[in-house]
């Protein structure tokens, strides 16, 4: 790989390392609540190796290498450098890489899915490995794959048949996209949910690897009593239980222990169903845990654990392991409670008829949380779960905003692309604007909308004799979801990004309503762009436009592939702003060669009459195509607006790469049970050494 291309794949120097501050909130818990939090924290982090194995073949040995060297030198990295003959710069390059690796739980960015490589010569890494025999053996396993590949395709996660990396399809380099789709569609027809599976191509067919502590659960415990089939082409499909069995056993054990400290019967039932799911591989048991979870309203300690988000599976249906444990911030939660109670008045403001909306808005919990533990490859700012459409439509969902993630800052963080005249306002109001945006995105964005379905043969959740009229065509709808189909299965690889875009657009439309801004403490509900509420609204639109520019970092010109669902969505919203006309939004620059002075001009006083209508028109199309399973028109719309044209590829993207700032990685505390049986909190320095130590002390991983 040439030196210029390599630059975008080098590990951050330095990475932005911030603490996930939690101590006051944790110490406010009772002893019983601390034990509950402890066991679920351990269960969450016990899935660390699952995440590593879901990312790349080399991630697990690299992890072991980092931990082995830490234990070898007992955290004395100056002594390690001396032993390896490293100078200060080489030691720092290693520590920077190790911190970024642990912050992403793998050697591909959790936000972007592109590989990052050490800023070290391979011979120097070998010298470091040579200080310890176990480290040297581990180095042998990854010595080539830790560095840049001459094939750029291998620097990105994606379908193996496109030359990308994906360990959702382990040891199957020749499995095609069509084969993945075929076996996935077959399993869907059998009613087997895919989130906790991987697919391995064999000589005579496919093994479906199911995550479970047991490698042979009884037929009664499984979601399907059958476990082997022969397809029409003679290939066999086999269910193979026990993927990640050691890790799943530890996870199951600690869910069992947590039951003793549950606050109520609903929590106990939730934990029992979690344990059953992780022991047997049953996702029906997991869905039952999520039903219990939704009913557990306002707990002091909020948790959710499992194979949740499907962003990193190139096929968009298999989930990555994650788990969180958090404490409720009651003051901030009150504001979100007002937003929940206002939802029935706000949803009718969205640009579609009632036939495309749930019959009744299922008021969810909306909680501001302070995170103790977030195990996985990255930490979001907000979450709306569960992701199962039938539960969301019939029972409900929960929204959480992660307060200490939102507020985490690194000092003197540069802010490119904002005009100097806007910078003070932007810095003052970007956090409040982002909190408003996250609230609307999670609660109303992901929480609104109805999938028009034939729920079982001959049974519909709409009047089939007088179908809803599409607001796009003015004609009765002609498409809907068939029995067994889900949003994810129909829209496939674009589903995750498309849905994030729809939710972002809901937020951008509704943050223009000044009654919403009043809920969050800005203004008195009167529409006035010149007051503080107007400042927050302007900052929200500026933030989205800036994110749309920065998104180009996550698009790869070689594969012509977006590597991050949210950033693809934000680029499309920037394009929507720009399509509203130069009277509203324009990219400005004097330097036409390399756009070194690129900034956003966004007219504050045209947000309401130009910006919002443009967003709403785009949102209406996104929503109706999703509601009616019109994947053909939905895909065409989304792919067209997220196509990176030559100007963005050749001018804007290089300017973005020159000014990109490292994404934050978080050092998290550990919980420790003392000799008195009580749980204490151990915090670490917010630097690379602290990050490594925090993982090294999780002996159960």
TrEMBL record:
InterPro entries: Dipeptidyl-peptase3 (IPR005317), Peptidase_M49 (IPR039461). Keywords: Aminopeptidase, Cytoplasm, Hydrolase, Metal-binding, Metalloprotease, Protease, Zinc. It is found in: Cytoplasm. It comes from the Eukaryota. Binds 1 zinc ion per subunit. It catalyses: Release of an N-terminal dipeptide from a peptide comprising four or more residues, with broad specificity. Also acts on dipeptidyl 2-naphthylamides. Zn(2+) binds at residues 441, 446, 500. The keyword Aminoacyl-tRNA synthetase does not apply. It is an enzyme of class 3 (hydrolase). Its cofactor is Zn(2+). The keyword Zinc applies. GO terms for molecular function: aminopeptidase activity; dipeptidyl-peptidase activity; metal ion binding; metalloexopeptidase activity. The active site is at residue 442. Pfam families: Peptidase_M49. PANTHER family: DIPEPTIDYL PEPTIDASE 3 (PTHR23422:SF11), DIPEPTIDYL PEPTIDASE III-RELATED (PTHR23422). This is Dipeptidyl peptidase 3.
